[in-house]
């Protein structure tokens, strides 16, 4: 359980997330994930990284129960900094990062996937941001890299999910496969990259990041500022308390 990394002679490092039951990550785990991805990229023997998860789904975002069980804002600040670090690590990793998304990918999971280089998904995968239902904001930056602008707004305001098949249609997901074939499909793409000259691939990753039209780290940080505002106003606690107590989103009714 936790964040683990394995490397092989082909130059492929696999980082696996395993936090039962739903891969909702506690604050420290986001930092651990960031460290694992950056460390892999710095290793000259690593040519490509696969980011995957065990269990029911790829990622359920931050551990809200941890946040609500902590007095003050310490856990909130740690979670926000941890998410920013993990999202940035995927983006800044010196080699391409392939994500293999199984089941659900929501909240913070969108930040990881939106900053990845290649996305593969199981045929039962769904993607979404329930942030407004939790009294928070964030990762619209990354959702906007997966769907067209107006669809991003619709999904964001309504907290609806989008399917892997829809994202494949938009071209943001490279391939959709049955869940039991997901790891093999990710491995196949990783091997195609790993056989290239890593000196060229590393420069290609840097070049593509440098010509990116969106500064994803600054953009996400702006979103986080509004999340802090909602917390200071007490709005976020109302929504998180309701979710912890009932498992459902708070409404105005």
Number of strands: 9
Order of helices and strands: EEHEHHEEHEEHHEHEHHHH
- Major sheet: size, sense and barrel closure? 6 strands, mixed
Number of separate structural domains: 1
CATH superfamily: 2-enoyl-CoA Hydratase, Chain A, domain 1
The class by helix and strand makeup works out as alpha/beta
Write down the CATH topology.
Answer: 2-enoyl-CoA Hydratase, Chain A, domain 1
| CATH architectural designation | Alpha-Beta Complex
**Strand residues, percent:** 15-25%
Shape designation: globular
Written overview of the protein:
There is one protein chain. Helix 1 (27-42) links the parallel strand 2 (12-18) and strand 3. The protein contains 11 helices and 9 strands. It is α/β, with parallel strands linked by helices and 253 residues long. The chain has helices at residues 27-42, 64-68, 74-92, 108-114, 140-143, 149-158, 164-170, 182-194, 198-210, 216-232, 235-246; strands at residues 2-7, 12-18, 48-53, 97-101, 104-106, 118-122, 126-128, 161-163, 175-177. It is globular, with a radius of gyration of 17 Å. The strands form 2 sheets. The chain has a 6-stranded mixed sheet, with helices on both faces. The protein has one domain (1-178, 211-253): 2-enoyl-CoA Hydratase, Chain A, domain 1.
SSE blueprint and pairings:
Blueprint: E1 2-7, E2 12-18, H1 27-42, E3 48-53, H2 64-68, H3 74-92, E4 97-101, E5 104-106, H4 108-114, E6 118-122, E7 126-128, H5 140-143, H6 149-158, E8 161-163, H7 164-170, E9 175-177, H8 182-194, H9 198-210, H10 216-232, H11 235-246
Parallel strand pairs: 2-3, 3-4, 4-6, 5-7, 6-9
Antiparallel strand pairs: 1-2, 7-8
Helix pairs in contact: 1-3, 3-4, 3-10
Organism: Rhodococcus coprophilus
Enzyme class: lyase
GO biological process, one term: fatty acid beta-oxidation
């Amino acid at each position: 359980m936790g964040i683990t990394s394995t490397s092989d002679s082909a130059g492929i490092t696999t980082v696996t997330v395993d936090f039962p039951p739903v891969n909702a990550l506690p604050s420290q785990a986001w930092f651990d994930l960031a460290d694992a991805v950056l460390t892999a990229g710095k290793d000259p023997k690593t040519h490509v990284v696969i980011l995957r998860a065990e269990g029911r789904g790829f990622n359920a975002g931050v551990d809200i129960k941890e946040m609500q069980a902590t007095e003050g804002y310490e856990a909130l600040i740690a979670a926000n900094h941890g998410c920013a670090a993990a999202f940035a690590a995927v983006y800044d990793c010196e080699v391409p990062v392939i994500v293999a998304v199984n089941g659900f990918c929501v909240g913070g999971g969108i930040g990881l996937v939106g900053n990845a280089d290649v996305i593969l998904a199981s045929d039962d995968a769904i993607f979404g941001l329930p942030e407004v239902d939790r009294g928070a904001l964030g990762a619209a930056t990354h959702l906007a890299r997966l769907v067209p602008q107006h669809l991003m707004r619709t999904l964001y305001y309504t907290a609806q999910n989008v399917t892997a098949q829809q994202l494949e249609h938009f071209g943001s997901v490279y391939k959709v496969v049955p869940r039991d074939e997901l790891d093999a499909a990710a491995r196949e793409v990783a091997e195609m990259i790993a056989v290239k000259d890593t000196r060229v691939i590393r420069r290609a990753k840097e070049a593509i990041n440098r010509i990116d039209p969106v500064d994803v780290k600054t953009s996400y940080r702006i979103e986080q500022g509004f999340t802090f505002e909602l917390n200071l106003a007490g709005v976020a606690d109302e929504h998180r308390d309701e979710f912890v107590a009932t498992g459902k989103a708070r409404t105005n009714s």
